[in-house]
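[job 4471] stage=fold_predict status=RUNNING
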Amino acid sequence: MTALRPIVMIAAAAALSACSTAAKVWPFGDDKPAEQTAPQDGRISILSFEQKLEADTALAGRTPFVPTPVDVEAWPQPGGPADNAPAHATMAGDFSIVARRDVGAGSSSNARISSPPVIADGKVFVFDADQRVSAFPVNGGGRIWSRDLSPRRGRDKDALGGGVAFADGKIYVTSGFGFAAALDATTGAEVWRTNTQAPIHAAPTVSGGRVFAVTNDSELIAIDATSGVVQWTHQAIAEPARILAASSPAVRGDTVVAPFASGEVVALLAANGRRLWVDALTRAGRLTSLSAINDIAGRPVALDGVVYAASHSGILAAIDQRTGQRIWARGLASTQTPWVAGDTLYVVTIDGELTALERTTGQAFWVTQLRRYNNEEDRKGRISWTGPLLAGGKLVLASSQGDAVIVNPTTGAVEKTLRVGGPVYISPVAAGGQVYLLTDEGKLVVLR
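[job 4471] inference complete, writing structure tokens
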């Protein structure tokens, strides 16, 4: 079984080619970071940054409100909808594995699967480690079409990451080879292709006739979805160390919220790229080399006028989408996308702590420690967790150890554990009464 991912990319400016010439190190160690102090930036956090992650006494006697599940027929973007705030989806069964399908090339030392499948128009679309987009019927069966997007010329033969999104009958693709493209979702025929100068490890977000994507050198690009013409760009602070993960922008109304490896969250007008505000989810103080990595590897969520985002260096914040002012923040390191449902924000930390936080204050209803090591006694074989997803009244998470856990969202109790059959580093998705897990080996596991 492969070692823990996501991996950290140490990238010099000269190493921004499509192939992975950058060095790679594991982002997590067995030792805890040194004691850290709160940033002194003039803002007041509701919770102390030194507070241990545990249930808050102020919420004693309260439990999270879990909204009623609704039918979700499609998962068209990497985060579900463009705002990365999916609904609580219905589930057709009791969370049993009903299918395992080979859907493409798995990860290797030179190529990675880094973004989730998307589901729309009765098909599952997958972008594999060989830069191939394939379409499969959601109800089972063979491949409908596939399109190899690897460059025909040039010295680069491998690329790290990229992803897909669906909108208006097209599949929009971003590639580690440094381009974006649009394909006909019915046939796979290429509609347009645009050079982005730098590789893109993450999937795009499509909204309002524009394709939004963040390149490896921290540039947000807005592309016309019809023609492939770049409409505007925004350059954030370039960061030499980052997590290889699929972090896509959130779009809500006329605002696009983009995450960057520097720990910046930037809100811009979707129409012209004018910057509205910026926040930095970075922690000052005594840090280990790994905890100093500020990357926002999970997707930001924009819902009800609030942006939720977490950084690897240890800040989870709720930010007013209009003004950019923090509503609350707490010391919590995560590489995953928070899940917002009802009055609760669910998030899993890099230490495998799954917690339910009250949305308006950031206080914890409960904290559940998931399995941290393959060998818990010797603290060896660190395990990473991805998710959560809320479906059928349960939280679903998967691990680098090849497990999927079904968790009660009200209490945090683990109710069921499934063996997926391979490591999972990509968040689960849900549509049509089913949950889909894409393993690092290129297999699609379906739960019902």
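[job 4471] summary: Residues 7-50 have pLDDT under 50 and may be disordered.
[job 4471] exit 0
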